[in-house]
Amino acid sequence: MKTLIVEDDFLARSLLSTLLSDFGICHVAVNGKEALGAIEKAFDENDPYDLICLDIMMPVMDGQEALLELRKIEARRGIRGLDTTKGHYGHRY
Fold first, then answer.
1. How many domains does the chain have?
2. Residue 51 in contact with residue 3, Cβ under 8 Å?
C-alpha cells in the first residue's frame, strides 16, 4: 500500500508514518499544496497513492482545499467512484 501523509505537525506526521509503514511505503507532505504536487507526480508515474491521510487545518493550503483539488485532478484523469483515492480526513481538536 502506498500512503501519503499530509500533516503540518511533525509529531503527528512521524507517528502516522511509523504506524503505517508496516503496511507499505509512506510519503509525507507538510501542506496541501505540497501534497498536490506529490499526487500529480504519482499519477504521472502511473503509481498513485492508495491512501491519503489528510489533515484539515494546515498553512498554505488546508486539507479541505486540497481534497477539492484532488477530486478535480481525478475527474480530469477519468478516475471516478470507487476508483478514487481513499482517505482519512482528520480534524484538529
1. 1
2. yes
**Which residues is 37 bridged to in the sheet?**
none
Helix ranges (DSSP H) in the chain: 10-20, 32-44, 63-76
Q: Which domain holds residue 69?
A: 3-90
Contacts of 88 (CB under 8 A, 6+ apart): 51, 52, 53, 54
The mean pLDDT values, 10 residues at a time, for the chain of 93 residues are: 95 95 96 96 94 90 91 92 72 46
State the Cα–Cα distance between residues 30 and 72, nearest whole angstrom. 21
Residue-wise burial string across 71-88, b where 16 or more C-beta atoms lie within 10 A, e elsewhere: eebbeeeebeeeeebebe
Query: Is 0.70 surpassed by the pTM of this model?
Result: yes
Under 8 Å between Cβ of 66 and 29 = no
The CATH number of whichever domain residue 57 belongs to comes to 3.40.50.2300
